[in-house]
Amino acid sequence: QVQLVESGGGLVQPGGSLRLSCAASGFTFSAYVMSWYRQAPGKEREVVASISTTGSSTDYADSVKGRFTISRDNAKNTVYLQMNSLKPEDTAVYYCKAGSRLLGRYYWGQGTQVTVSS
Fold first, then answer.
1. Which of 93, 30, 94, 35 is closest to 60 using CA atoms?
2. Strands 58-60 and 46-51
3. pLDDT band (50, 70, 90) for residue 30
4. Fewest beta carbons within 10 Å, which of 32, 37, 102, 109?
5. Pick from 48, 50, 58: which is nearest to 90 by CA?
6. Which neighbouring-strand residues pair with 51?
7. Using CB atoms within 10 A of its CB, is residue 40 exposed (0-12), middle (13-18) or buried (19+)?
8. Are strands 10-12 and 112-116 parallel, antiparallel or unpaired?
9. Are 33 and 99 in contact, with CB atoms under 8 Å apart?
10. CA 6 to chain centroid
């Protein structure tokens, strides 16, 4: 069965850094666009970053540009989100998503909590 397992979340101070990982299995990872979403308390889920199948193209929400970097390692079936200069407003549950419009298939992880606080 398909699995997307996020890890690396936790409590960090403002200005700190964190790297999230998402390990995928049960599908052809290299054929899917990978994305990170987040959902803060009382707010709707929003896309944070996306990366193309080969890693040649990336896209970011304006709120994280210059601070976050998405990357992928197709040999390891893993996508990462490097988060620097973290702010309290980055606090949210972060979700990993795999998507293929061509195949019409979309998968979600269970999420990992990121809390930025003093």
1. 35
2. antiparallel
3. very high
4. 102
5. 48
6. 34, 58
7. middle
8. parallel
9. yes
10. 8
Please write the tens of the pLDDT for every residue from 70-106: 999 999 999 999 999 999 999 999 999 999 999 999 9
> What is d(CA 85, CA 18) in angstroms, rounded to the nearest whole number?
9
Task: In whole angstroms, give the CA distance from residue 109 to residue 100.
Answer: 15
C-alpha span between 108 and 92 (Å, rounded) = 16
Work out the angle at residue 100's Cα, subtended by the Cα atoms of residues 48 and 76, and round it to the nearest 5 degrees: 75
Kindly report the backbone phi and psi dihedral angles of residue 90, in degrees, each rounded to the nearest multiple of 5, phi listed first.
-80, -10
Query: What secondary structure, in 3-state letters, does 38-105 show?
Result: EECCCCCCEEEEEECCCCCCEEECCCCCCCEEEEEECCCCEEEEEECCCCHHHCEEEEEEEEECCCCE
Record the tokens describing residue 117, joined without a space: 């606080």
